[in-house]
Fold these 2 entries.
Entry 1:
Amino acid sequence: MLADQLLALLAQVFEPTSAAFIRHAGPESVKYAIDLGCGPGYATRMLADAFPSASVIGLDISNHFIRSARSREHATTRFYLHDVTGNPPPGPPADLMYARYLLTHISDPTVVVSRWLDFLSRDGRLLIEENQSIDTDNPVFVNYLDILTRMLVGQSNNLYLGPTVEELVNSAGLNCLIDQVTPVRVSDRDTATMFRMNIESWQHNPFILDNYSQRDVLSIMSALDSIRRADEVFSSITFNVRQFALGRS
Ligand SMILES: C[S@@+](CC[C@H](N)C(=O)[O-])C[C@H]1O[C@@H](n2cnc3c(N)ncnc32)[C@H](O)[C@@H]1O
């Protein structure tokens, strides 16, 4: 499925940044870790590799992703179908909870994030990664991001959740131990591949159908395809990833 391929590439692109962050921001001893909104389980595996003596579970609301994650289960990982906004997660209090690119799917993040902190062990950490901003002067990427941003505004949603997390941490008075922005330079080829796959999921959205012609959409798809096929590995885009480590109050 295209969504699996997209998340596989996303995991590969952000792995060095995320792995460095969880090693730096995670507690010294991790016996039990939870990957919230784990998708096909790539970040769950990253947690398992970073903390080899821990049991790590991945939770996701999608049956499809849980099946996909289970197909590459590892000795210390397990996956469960679970809505992370609902019942408490299975197992004991967690030493580490990790949520990457999940909060955009959650309608009341303030309540949900505060609640997750209750499921941590005493010195446990909740680590969150979201986009703060994206810098690029590549006209194809600028155009793509402009269309996506307009579409998300119409859905009261946002591509850049970093500032929203900052706001909720401050308004709820949460115990924020780390708040940093890490720039990730991504090749144009990988970016075009991710954006191209993503268009498949939103090209029939009512906002797109109402505001853009099929020609506009096909033209951006074809421009992304040309970048994807280019031989040289070049980068004209930086994803600025906001990284938060929260503890119990
Ligand atoms: C953009 S993907 C990120 C996947 C993974 N965290 C990563 O970084 O590779 C968001 C994931 O959150 C899951 N998700 C959305 N709402 C959820 C909820 N309420 N409970 C559990 N998972 C949820 C989606 O099914 C999807 O797999």
Entry 2:
Amino acid sequence: MRQKRQETHAPGLLRRLLERLEGREQMLLRGHPSWPLLLLSYPANHLHVAEELREAWLHTLPSLKAPVAADYREMLAHLPAVVVVVLRPRNVCDCLGHHHPRGAESRLAKRLAHDMGSEVGEIDLAWEAIRAWRPQPLSSLAAGEGFAVLHFHVALLAVLLHELEHLAHPDRQESAVRRTSDSFYSSVLDELVSQDGVTRFGMNIRPVAP
Ligand SMILES: [Zn+2]
Ligand SMILES: [Zn+2]
């Protein structure tokens, strides 16, 4: 997902080589039975980002009332049983995330697919780029520390679901996929900023280390 609307493309080879030199850890997220298992792969000293995504996937997504969230939950049933989510702070190409076309997955995903004897999908997310992303003016919404944390939570989910929809529906046009994720971003942000959202999610929103 590019910050502005452009064609998708594969991330750089150099980046992948660098990642082999850096220790990475994995976290498996098991949500609703019809959803894929998410295998998060993150730099060893950035457990906090994996925890933020776990909170969003296991607790926030199932609870959202927005109709677009219900559409996404239905979409998740069309994905491979396992999806690898490669987390890194930023991409050299400045994208927020990518879905990896069949055959272009990492060695981790290929090894998993081989061992399981089934298809394994893969996407990547650039969490610092997502944290800084402001696709819409936020003047009508609250500012401050609490909002920054909430915004990051919603933006992470929006980009994750955007890339997962590409995997589930490879033929779907970028403009359509982007329309859904833009709608998710704004309606879920509204939902969570509302008093009801603060009440429901206030306890889940923890400060996130930089
Ligand atoms: Zn896209
Ligand atoms: Zn890119």
